[in-house]
Structure of AraC family transcriptional regulator:
Amino acid sequence: MHATETSRYWRHPCFPDLGLFKARFTRHRYELHTHPTYVIALITAGCERIRIGRRNVIAPAGTVAIVNPEEWHDGEQGTDEGWAYRTFYPTVPLMTALARELGRDRAPVFSREIIEDHHLASALAAAHEGSTSQDATRAEASLLAALGRLIVRHGDWNGRVGEVESAGWRRRFPVYEELIESRLGSPLDLQRLADATRVTRFQVIRDFKKTIGLTPAAYIRDRRLRRACLLIEEGLGLADAALAAGFADQSHLTRSFRAAHGMSPGMFRRAR
């Protein structure tokens, strides 16, 4: 018999742009998606199987999974019992500011997808629990301690290894990105992307596969979800946000949102 699946999303009382998520899943499977923020997930029980970028990794209880901003990732149970976890979504400006306070000159990059560090895990657990405390000083201090240890001990200050080489597909990809962003609320197809870069539809598919390892459709769905999140945060109703972001209707948005984020758009809106 499957255990009950639960999830909750809220904002940090001292850092309003920092989202936090707590969940237990047994059957839920995340589709590939991205975030504009970092994703720092402390696995508290069970085991999660994750694709991060082009790597497939296993995150057992006690480990910390790290996803850099804009990095594609998914997630599913890595064992029959599923997994439970506590997640932080710190923004790039927040992590950059903390890194500078710690003597670095830029935002951190994390090259290891899975971190085994008992002290970091304990600090993250304390910070996550502290975010719901009535004591604002405790909430702030515990978060800074946890993120500070993560940045200093595990940031890769030599840059990400394995940067892709410059090539035609890399020059074309910004054109695809710009066109998609400008037409999220309108129909998009491969031919339009091909026309914009004067290549074939087959080349468009190859370009996406080469650059991010996904199909154009998966990328467009992710961008529409990102647009919907922004519109909901700005106060637009769910139905209007769905249409403005290019979804067929609110139900279409809800299905896609839950598949990517493990929560409904309504839960996300209530945390505003």
